[in-house]
Amino acid sequence: MPRNLLPEDQLHPALRDELGRFHADVIDEVKSAIARHPVVVVGMKQNPFPRRARRLLDRIGTQYTYLEYGSYLSQWKRRLALKMWSGWPTFPMIFVNGVLIGGAADLERLVEHGQFVALLAAPRAPA
């Protein structure tokens, strides 16, 4: 099912430009990491779920790149830009070979069912 997004033609042209620039540096940083690394975890301080995902990856011996954006008390607009870009509402955001797989619980499910290794071995998604 496609994501439910407000169509571009229903955004005023000036707003389109503003949305396109909204913390574009953060989005570019994450995109760059995703292009360079097979596994990327995007998280924040104080949230136990990014830590849970990283511990699982450590336990199964999978290397990953971790990007952290603030805490509950800081950098919320930078995290909002990532949520708007990805469509994923929570942290962590975990990418495997360029594909967003979800958060910590999603990673746990994939590992438990033996699907994570297959995702890691699959060809990289086109950029």
TrEMBL record:
GO terms for cellular component: cytoplasm. Transmembrane segments: none annotated. Pfam families: Glutaredoxin (PF00462). Residues 39-101 form the Glutaredoxin domain. One of its GO terms (molecular function) is glutathione disulfide oxidoreductase activity. GO terms for biological process: cellular response to oxidative stress. InterPro entries: Glutaredoxin, Thioredoxin-like_sf. Belongs to the glutaredoxin family. This is Glutaredoxin.
